[in-house]
Amino acid sequence: VQLQASGGGLAQAGGSLRLSCAASGGTFSNYVMGWFRQVPGKEREFVAGLGWNGGSTYYTDSVKGRFTISRDNAKNTVYLQMNSLKPEDTAVYYCAADAYRWVVKTRPIDYHYWGQGTLVTVSS
User: CA-CA distance, 17 to 24, in Å (whole number)?
Assistant: First the structure.
């Protein structure tokens, strides 16, 4: 499956952005979807994950209450709505797909397919 992330850009602290990740080449509903982020010199970290039917969602503590992951299986797209952005949210954001659809995992190594990344910059 191929993943194409979009929606990154520059936002002010307290602002919002919505990331999208369009999938092609596979059966989208078979995959757990996740969003990760990475800053230079640091490991890629889990941000949010979503079960194949949207019924299970998981978030890293630092984004709980501010970010929302969702998916539209009819459009083969997963979203990350980011509100109340903080400068520490600045990173390259990646979407990822895990072919094991029954459990939402948080380790990058557990995801089989990756998008190219989209840069989010939050200014103070």
Answer: 23
Q: Which residues pair with 11 in a beta bridge?
A: 122
Query: DSSP letters of 6-22?
Result: E--EEEETT--EEEEEE
Closest CA to 116 of 1, 6, 42: 6
**Digit-coded pLDDT (tens) for 83-102:** 999 999 999 999 999 998 88
Output the CA torsion sign for 93, 99, 103, 107: negative
Any idea of the CA torsion for 59, 64, 66, 67, to the nearest 10 degrees? Answer: 10
Share of the chain above pLDDT 70, in %: 100
Q: Which residues contact 29 (CB under 8 A, 6 or more apart)?
A: 52, 53, 73
Q: Which residues pair with 33 in a beta bridge?
A: 50, 97
